[in-house]
Design brief:
Strand content: under 5%
Number of strands: 0
Shape: flat
Order of helices and strands: HHH
Distance between the termini: 44 Å
Helix content: 40-55%
Structural class: mainly alpha
Radius of gyration: 29 Å
Length: 97
Amino acid sequence: MVDSISSKPVSGRDRQLTPVTRASAATRVTAENDGVATEQLKLSAIAFGYDETPPVDLERVSRIRNAVRNGTFPIYPTKIADRLIALKLEWNPHDAK
């Protein structure tokens, strides 16, 4: 059962405190850890480099834009409906057999 929203007094028993422990001391960076950190920085730099050039086929985008502009882009209502339903149900129609 759900209590309705209202102002009701809070007793001391309703409040629960959790003990807090001290934080551990920071560890020093060793040569071994420094190598790992350097490798992670290199991988991060590579990953961020992919953001600069998105994997887009500009020629295909141009063809689709022109087809939409000219009114020659094929539109299949059943395919659109199927994909909208699949999206709503979080289902991939390409995985179905």
